[in-house]
Amino acid sequence: MKELVQYLARYLVNNPDAVEVKETLGDTASVLELKVAREDLGRIIGKQGRTAKSIRTILNAAASRTNRKVVLEIIEDK
Q1: CB 74 within 8 A of CB 34
Q2: Range of the domain at 60
Q3: Is 50 helix (H, G, I), strand (E, B) or coil?
Q4: What is the per-residue pLDDT for 59?
Q5: Overall domain count for the chain
Q6: CA dist 9 → 6, 39, 63, 70 (Å)
Q7: What is the CATH number of the domain that holds 38?
Q8: Residue 21 class from Cβ within 10 Å (0-12 exposed, 13-18 middle, 19+ buried)?
Q9: Are 42 and 26 in contact (CB under 8 A)?
Q10: Which phi-psi region, left, alpha or beta, contains residue 30 (left: φ > 0; alpha: ψ -120 to 50)?
């Protein structure tokens, strides 16, 4: 799942080297934390969150094959 998020994020942003994905595994769920450069945050979220929702949909479809739940958190650096 981590590789899938990295792949998608790298092709959406202007600064692909700044993409970081951290995965935390639980019993039945995984939490993926996505960090991108500040100027690329809008590209990942999209208008009214459509891009982020689409990424989450793709993740849940891939995770359903392994009977896991995946939560994507987009981290904003301050």
Answers
A1: yes
A2: 2-75
A3: helix
A4: 94
A5: 1
A6: 5, 13, 18, 16
A7: 3.30.300.20
A8: buried
A9: no
A10: beta
User: In the structure encoding, which two tokens stand for residue 50, read together?
Assistant: 């459509």
3-state secondary structure of 32: strand
pLDDT tens, residue by residue, 18-75: 999 999 998 888 999 999 999 999 999 999 999 999 999 999 999 999 888 999 999 9
Confidence of residue 78 (pLDDT cuts 50, 70, 90): low
Cβ atoms of 36 and 14 within 8 Å: the answer is: no
User: What is the identity of the amino acid at 76?
Assistant: E
Residue with tokens 């951290």: 22
* Burial of 65 from C-beta contacts in 10 A (0-12 / 13-18 / 19+): exposed
Measure the CA–CA gap between 63 and 44, rounded to whole angstroms: 20
